Amino acid sequence: MEQTFWLTMEDETDIFIRKWAPDHSEIPRAIVQLSHGMVEHIGRYDAFARFLTSNGFIVYGNDHRGHGLTGEKQGLLGHFADEDGFVKTSDDLSVITEYIQEEHPNVPIFLFGHSMGSFLARHLIQTNSDAYKGVVLSGTGFHTETAARFAKNLAEVLPAKNESKLLNKLVFGSYNRKIPGNKTTFDWLSRDKTAVQAFIDDPLTGAIPTAKFFHDLMTGLEMIHNRSRNQMIRKDLPMLIVSGDADPVGHYETGVWKTAELYTEAGLNDVMTMLFEDARHELLQETNHQDVYEAMLRWFNLVLDS
User: Is the pLDDT score of 25 beyond 80?
Assistant: First the structure.
């Protein structure tokens, strides 16, 4: 069973939300709140959400600011907000969590963030980790302060609300470099050619973001790598970091291990890292996506049963 609805945030921005639930009315095993990646939308998570509902979970997910139907209603895809866009988008997730808690009191909530959505999740748990039974970071990475600062400084001198092909190339331009015989600019997303073509054909994916979006994103990257902020995360929060070892966002697993180290150094005592051989960025859209689904389910159940 699927429902769609809108929630209005404090600044009057309307956020589009999907809810997937089992057909039966039993109390759910848990709730998974999804946070999607950059220049995509929550509709792309339908198959994963349906898999989870078939195993007794309820799933919620939203189109972030500047993305999907939320971005369409705002009138500009690829643009979070005129000010503080990353923080506002992370705060939206917190508001949605509060809504879920009101709708389903005492049901544990897992936060699942992919790519940019994992960065938003990493920001959110710095101040709100008590709300979650556990967190999954998919397709995440480790970024140096120098790299983020360079891109941020460049964004500051570009027209804020114009799409920035320059920054888009700076961020994504090298991602296909290790793909043998690549056919499209998005082959780094998945080995599944059908999934890549679906991304290309989808009118709500692949927009070139604005300079202000990249500025906000780099601000967010600075925040999530801040060691004192990460000290605020509760130490017993179960965390699963999952990636393909051929994912350029995770620097071909190097950045994945650095991310895990960042959180263990912050004192988290239940950090698990899982790598899928030869898989690229979008694990949920990969040729071995069923293996990924099953691995996620095992981890959710492991945390719930512990």
Answer: no
